[in-house]
Write a structure and sequence with these properties.
The complex is a heterotrimer. Helix content of chain A is 24%, strand content 17%. Chain A contains 8 helices and 13 strands. The radius of gyration of chain A is 25 Å and the shape is elongated. By secondary structure, chain B is of the alpha+beta class. In chain B, strands 1, 2, 3 and 6 form a 4-stranded antiparallel sheet that branches. In chain B, strands 5-4-7-8 form a 4-stranded antiparallel sheet, with no helix packed on it. Chain B is elongated, with a radius of gyration of 37 Å. Chain C is mainly alpha-helical. In chain C, 75% of the residues lie in helices and 0% in strands. Chains in contact: A-B, A-C, B-C. Chains A and C meet through β4, α3, α4 and β8 of A and α7 of C.
């Protein structure tokens, strides 16, 4: 009786161990199969800490919210192949929350009051109602800034984006006066961007992103390190009210992160227009007029 | 004793088989079919030149009726919902939707259609996707090759020709002047008066 | 016999009066002043190179400041070379002879510093070569680089070629004991012997260059105006800008030459050569040019003022009755209207009133260019919001003033050094003039 019981126990234990191994093995297989192929393995990465210092962080500790830069394969003076980016801004939803500016500044290592997006209070005429209007760079199809650049430091890409090569720019600032939308900013001093220019050079950046170099010009670049692998730019994602739609004109689809709609349908239904259309610059950013507002117009910036 | 042994073996094999099945299920889910046992099958058909997408929902082999199925087309930055009237599965577990005639696809006209059951109480989330060549082939319009905003090598011809001609003519005259300076110098060499 | 005796007496007199003289006390003080101003400017530029353009008051909205308006001013002044050397020559205004070299050196000095101040304004001056390697021919800046460098070369030629006979005189009158001086003049004189062939060549060259420099002069200031007119901004988006700038340039340059000629005349006792006749004629010329400039000003302001388009209207309002009104009206009145009124009278065309008027015109021209460049940038289509208070204004910093003053001092230094080295009034052309007069006189006597 005892021997049999011992045998049973042993067999049970053996079986249990075997089962345990089987489970563990399958769970392990599960883990391996669910690995994200895209994760790059590097030891440490240089990042900007909240108080403006460069720190080296183990890459495994990186929170995926922090933007990851990558160097792309495609020719940076040509753009993402097969696409033509377009943005639609819904003015009926903007209440100057300013999250787009914060996200843009964070993405591009800018001080918050120098973000590439400006939000202005606009009032089309005396009797019309005021509204908030965010303006990124419009990436015009007939860009006055590209026309006047004497050295080709700013150029039009095939995907519609107007890029800047901060290594070529001589700092003449003609593009800044030529742009009727005040889209461009200038690096007047080294200290302005909380980063030493030398240190910033070590961080690998998508070559089509605007970089900070003293004495050169910068502007919104439609976040090529995001759009290059089918992610929405930071301003689009950060807006809590779904103001920004971003997409591909070739696909005729734009998305604000939650809603995805046909571009042509959106512009037709909501009477999309372009700011200062009669200047002939052919912007790639459309606006939807501020009708049926989601929020009443408030002068004071709401608490975040 | 024997019955015990048999039951232990049974337990072991059951556990092993269960975990293997879990793995298999997970792998199949990777392959864009259901986790759990429900399954969606997408098929395409054309009726009177109207393109239709049909999704058949089955659960453990039998059709499931009365469940809403949402259809999307996969685009770069999101899933474009397709409009349809009857998206609830009928008795055959099928739900059909019209495919729009003017939707652009990729360069060859392919689109990826996704059918999804969203968060049902019993079935959970079930998804299937399939590619079909029903989109309009689309390509971005190429940029103008010569314009005022292209690179310096690709300026409009009138501009390049005008500026080059002016520069050549004027600097030609300037170099002629430099040559005249040489002539003056030579003319003074032998102190002619 | 008589003629040749008169000639040789006149020759000696000419040489005594017109050969370059050493600096006296005044000259040295003047030089020292210029060098001090330049030194302060150089230090300010060093600070700018180290810290970036943040040392200026230019910010994202007013990204062009007094460096650019100073550049436009210099290009404007440099047109006077073509005015006196070429335009007056082609109209056979022989009285211009003593003034030719003064205007030509003013033009060369001005265009040199126009190019230098542009380099100062660049955010990355070490990348200047990008303009030549990566230049885009569609850009108005590149057109400006082309015309300005071409005009510079032609102006230097227009200065140098007629200077050859006088360099030869300097060479011949320098004793062999001053070795470097002699060497300097000999090399530059290009074996000038005064034979017929050489005279023929320089006459031919001067004629060709005189014709060539006129369209080029019109070109430089028109292309410079296009730096502004090819943008959409209120106050710049005007098809009138080319002629408006050119007219203003001739007026400012003419006044500049009047001021320089007064100073040189008084200091070097050149009253016999730069006579009241010259002041009279230059005065009349300045009136004419001011009237033409007035005409273009009226066009430039009345036409958009009649319409008062939104942003245009705000800009004009600020110029006529807003923040910039005092400066605007001072410039228009003292820089344009007053010269017309004063110089219409014969008494107003005497040397001293002319000097005052000329200085007013030149100073007015400098501030006019400031008014063209800066206020427009404070009225973009998208309102300036959410930025520091100081960004709503542009008040140049001491570095900008220092560098600008240094550039002006530098241009004056070039003129001063030239006067020290070469005769400022063409000796051989004056001789030619006098000979013509002698021949006429003796012919008259004979008759």
């Amino acid at each position: 009786m005892d021997e049999n019981q011992n045998n049973t126990r042993r067999k049970f234990l053996k079986a249990g161990a075997f089962a345990g191994l089987a489970i563990a093995g399958s769970v392990g297989a599960f883990e391996v199969l669910s690995q994200d192929d895209n994760k790059k393995k590097s030891d440490t990465v240089k990042l900007l800490s909240p108080d403006g210092k460069i720190v080296e962080v183990d890459s495994s500790e990186i929170n995926p919210q922090i933007p990851e830069f990558f160097v792309s394969d495609h020719n940076v003076r040509e753009g993402v192949p097969g696409k033509k980016f377009v943005m639609v801004i819904d003015l009926s939803r903007c209440r100057n929350a300013g999250k787009c500016k914060t996200a843009c500044s964070k993405m591009h290592y800018l001080p918050e009051d120098r973000s590439y997006i400006k939000i202005n209070k606009m009032q089309d005429s005396e009797k019309a109602s005021p509204y908030w209007m965010p303006t990124p760079c419009f990436h015009c199809d007939n860009p006055p800034c590209v026309k006047v650049c004497p050295v080709g430091a700013t150029f039009k890409l095939t995907d519609g984006v107007v890029g800047i090569d901060n290594d070529r720019c001589i700092g003449c600032r003609f593009c800044m006066v030529a742009c009727p939308y005040s889209a461009r900013v200038f690096n007047w001093s080294k200290d302005e961007f909380q980063l030493n220019v030398e240190e910033f050079k070590d961080i690998k950046q998508h070559a089509a992103c605007s970089t900070h170099a003293l004495g050169t010009v910068e502007k919104c670049d439609f976040c090529p390190s995001k759009t290059g692998h089918d992610e929405l730019p930071d301003c689009v994602v950060a807006c809590p009210n779904g103001v920004f739609y971003f997409g591909d004109e070739v696909e005729d689809v734009v998305s604000n992160g939650e809603e995805t709609v046909r571009l042509s349908q959106l512009l037709k239904d909501k009477s999309g227009y372009r700011y200062l259309e009669d200047l002939g610059t052919k912007p790639r950013v459309y606006y939807l007029p501020p009708v049926d507002r989601q929020f009443p117009f408030e002068e004071v910036k709401p608490e975040s | 004793m024997r019955s015990h042994t048999i039951s232990i073996k049974k337990i072991v094999s059951l556990v092993g088989i269960c975990s293997l099945m879990l793995c298999a299920q997970y792998l199949r889910a990777q392959d864009s079919t259901a986790s759990g046992e429900a399954k969606l099958d997408i098929s395409f058909s054309e009726q009177d030149s109207v393109k239709k997408i049909t999704a058949k929902l089955t659960h453990a082999g039998s059709a499931v009726a009365g469940i809403d199925i949402h259809f999307y087309v996969k685009k770069s930055f999101g899933l474009l919902p397709l409009e349809g009237e009857n998206i609830t599965t009928d008795d055959n577990g099928e739900s059909t939707i019209d495919f729009p005639t003017d939707l652009p696809g990729d360069a060859s006209g392919n689109v990826v259609v996704i059918a999804r059951v969203e968060d049902d109480e019993n079935l959970g989330t079930v998804e299937a996707s399939k590619t079909v060549n029903w989109g309009l082939p689309s390509k971005p319009e190429p940029l103008q090759s010569r314009a005022l905003w292209t690179s310096g090598n690709n300026a409009p011809w009138p501009l390049t020709i005008t500026i080059t001609s002016i520069v050549v003519i004027v600097w030609g005259i300037i170099f002629y002047m430099f040559y005249q300076l040489v002539v003056i110098k030579r003319a003074g060499k032998y102190n002619k008066t | 016999m008589e003629v040749s005796k008169i000639e040789s007496v006149q020759s000696d007199e000419l040489l005594k009066d017109l050969m370059p003289k050493k600096f006296g006390i005044q000259g040295r003080l003047w030089l020292a002043l210029l060098l001090v101003v330049i030194a302060i400017g150089a230090f300010a530029y060093y600070r700018q190179l180290r810290n970036g353009l943040i040392v200026t008051d230019m910010r994202d909205f007013t990204s062009w400041g007094i460096y650019i308006s100073n550049f436009v001013f210099f290009v404007a002044i440099s047109l006077v070379g073509s005015l006196v050397s070429a335009i007056l020559k082609l109209t056979n205004a022989d009285w211009r002879t003593p003034l030719v070299r003064i205007s030509e050196i003013t033009a060369v000095a001005a265009i040199t510093f126009a190019a230098l101040i542009i380099i100062v304004d660049m955010g990355r001056p070490e990348r200047f070569w990008h303009l030549f390697v990566y230049g885009r021919i569609q850009s108005p800046i590149l057109w400006d680089v082309i015309v300005i460098s071409t005009y510079f070369v032609i102006s230097v030629l227009l200065l140098y070629i007629p200077l050859l006979p006088d360099i030869a005189i300097c060479r011949d009158t320098t004793p062999d004991s001053s070795k470097w001086k002699k060497r300097f003049y000999t090399v530059l004189a290009l074996n000038w012997r005064g034979n017929k062939k050489q005279y023929d060549v320089i006459h031919k060259c001067i004629n060709i260059l005189a014709v060539l420099v006129i369209p080029l002069a019109l070109g430089i200031h028109t292309v410079t105006s296009w730096l502004f007119a090819t943008t959409y901004r209120a106050g710049w988006d005007s098809s009138n800008f080319g002629p408006y700038f050119v007219a203003g340039a001739f007026q400012a340059g003419c006044a500049g030459v009047i001021a320089v000629m007064y100073v040189l005349r008084n200091h070097y006792k050149l009253q016999k050569y730069i006579t009241e006749l010259h002041f009279n004629n230059m005065g009349k010329l300045l009136v004419l040019l001011s009237l033409i400039y007035l005409y273009f000003n009226i066009n430039e302001y009345l036409v958009p003022g009649y319409k008062m388009k939104t942003v245009d209207g705000e800009h004009l309002h600020e110029m006529f009755s807003g923040r910039y009104a005092p400066l605007f009206w001072s410039v228009q009145i003292f820089g344009m209207i007053l010269p017309i009124i004063v110089l219409l009278f014969r008494k107003g065309r005497k040397p001293v009133p002319m000097l005052i008027v000329a200085i007013l015109v030149v100073v007015g021209a400098w501030f006019k260019r400031f008014l063209i460049v800066v206020p427009t940038q404070l009225h973009p289509f998208i309102p300036i919001e959410g930025v520091p208070e100081s960004w709503h204004r542009y008040i140049p910093t001491w570095e900008e003033w220092a560098i600008t003053s240094a550039s002006l001092a530098g241009a004056l230094l070039i003129i001063t050094l030239f006067v020290r080295l070469f005769p400022i009034i063409p000796i051989w052309e004056t001789k030619e003039e006098k000979m013509k007069i002698n021949v006429i006189d003796t012919t008259k006597q004979a008759v």
